[in-house]
Amino acid sequence: MKLKSNIIIIMLLSVMFSGNKNGKANDFIGFWEGPHPEDITKKFYIQFIYHNNEIAANGFWTKKGFYDSKFKVDSVRIANDSIRFYIPIWNCFYIGRLSESKYINGGFMCEGEPFDSVSLTKNNEISTFLTQAKPNCTSKGYTYSYNRPVFLKDNIQASPYQSSMDSLFIYSIIPEIIRGDYGRINSFLLLKDGKLICEEYFYGYTHTDLHQIESSTKSITSLLIGIAMDLGFITSLDEPLYQIFPAYKHLETGQYSYISIYHLLTMTSGYDTENDAVFHAENRIDYAIKREMAHHPGDTFGYDGGNTEILGAVIKAKTGMYADEFAEKYLLTPLNIKSYNWDILKQDGFPCMGGSLKLRPRDMAKIGLMVLNKGKFDNQQIVSQYWIKESTSVKTKTHIKGDSYGYHWWNIEFKSNGITYETIWANGLGSQFVYIIPEINAVIVTTGFNYENDSWSITGGISKYIYLLGN
């Protein structure tokens, strides 16, 4: 009976929308908001636009008000005050009727399911979060205008740019970010000579919003290991894992017996790399430690978040504190970092070390500035100079040409206008990056939502213009 009813509705729709009359098409142009059926933090939006003199549509999901993903919308038909469209991924038609120019009363018709009533509400303000990096940036004649970073009493010195070349760098790269040349970049911060001279946010983000920094969390883990060494909790990076985790007897056998803290830090432990399996395991640390060996420790670089999860367990075993507690006491509080979240994917008190920490971009900048200043921030030595130098210098080549690896820090080169700038890099999927360029005394921070785009394209943009900051 359901299939028969749907066939009848489709036939009625074909008659109703035949000829594609669009006398009220302009009333539909814009963004229309609908709810998620189960998650109150999510909403979907349908954007109707003119494309080649016809009505077309785009679909978007938001989570907690910010862009989350997009989906395809097909077969838009408008007849007077009625509308129909099709969402392929759901295999559903939506049919509705305009009411007061602000609402569409209707619902979804999906094969084999009863009609699902869903009203849509017009909300053009959401464009700032979905399609416009800056308000009105898609309007004809829009030009970017620089704004001096604001002083916030957070131990960061805010300042206008100091030279015409700084200005040229900013006015070169920021318009390209706004244009979308590097995907969805949500923030871009530049510190030069210890001063924050550029702080731009896009797609509705502000300086108060936390960003999951993904694998840049690994570089934070490296700093925590260094602090644990500075304080004497860890006495040698050559200590084998079987001494730290005596309950795991297999660590005393075969190739496992050679694995040390050093190998975990340099991603040369020899473990079979199973990143997805590790992060979906009910007990990440147990799974990571028990994995098969693929190489002899020290022989081969294998980028693997399981190594970082084990390092979190090393911190707990050596200090008696979970890594997030240890970080709060010895790293985050000294850096005056008060707003963060490390609860995502926490298991039995152990935070996820491979990519779950959420920080504000300004606080990411503090970490970069501390590393640039050899472990010192606001006249306080937070991490030893020795560890900063040791952990950020090249320890092994990687699977990526031109990229090297230290202790959970990447080493890359910016080649700009014939000049090479050695750069220390915290690298997180989606464009969650901290670039530290000692030669020009600069730190650059980006966050983004480039999971559907090239996460690393912004690196090329920075490389194109970075020579300007060296003049």
Keywords:
globular; single chain; Lipocalin; Beta-lactamase; alpha+beta; 9-stranded mixed beta sheet; 471 residues; 3 domains; 27% strand; 10-stranded antiparallel beta sheet
Description:
- The chain is α+β, with helices and mostly antiparallel strands and 471 residues long.
- The protein folds into three domains: 2-130, Lipocalin (Beta Barrel); 133-211 and 360-375 and 396-471, no CATH class; 214-357, DD-peptidase/beta-lactamase superfamily (Beta-lactamase, 3-Layer(aba) Sandwich).
- It is 28% helix and 27% strand.
- It is built from 14 helices and 24 strands.
- The strands form four sheets. Strands 1, 2, 3, 4, 5, 6, 7, 8, 9 and 10 form a ten-stranded antiparallel β-sheet that branches. A nine-stranded mixed β-sheet has the order 11-13-12-24-23-22-21-20-19, with helices on both faces. It has a three-stranded antiparallel β-sheet with strand order 14-16-15.
- Strand 20 and strand 21 (410-416) form a beta hairpin.
- Helix 4 runs antiparallel to helix 14 and helix 5 packs parallel to helix 10 (305-319).
- The radius of gyration is 26 Å and the shape is globular.
- The N and C termini lie far apart (75 Å).
- Residues 1-5 have low confidence and may be disordered.
Topology:
Blueprint: H1 2-16, H2 25-28, E1 30-35, E2 42-51, E3 54-63, E4 66-72, E5 74-79, E6 82-87, E7 92-99, E8 103-110, E9 116-117, E10 120-122, H3 127-130, E11 157-158, H4 164-179, E12 185-192, E13 195-201, E14 211-212, H5 216-230, H6 241-244, H7 261-265, H8 275-280, H9 284-290, H10 305-319, H11 323-332, E15 340-341, E16 358-359, H12 361-372, E17 376-377, E18 380-381, H13 385-392, E19 396-397, E20 404-405, E21 410-416, E22 419-428, E23 432-437, E24 442-448, H14 457-465
Parallel strand pairs: 11-13
Antiparallel strand pairs: 1-2, 1-10, 2-3, 3-4, 5-6, 6-7, 7-8, 8-9, 8-10, 12-13, 12-24, 14-16, 15-16, 17-18, 19-20, 20-21, 21-22, 22-23, 23-24
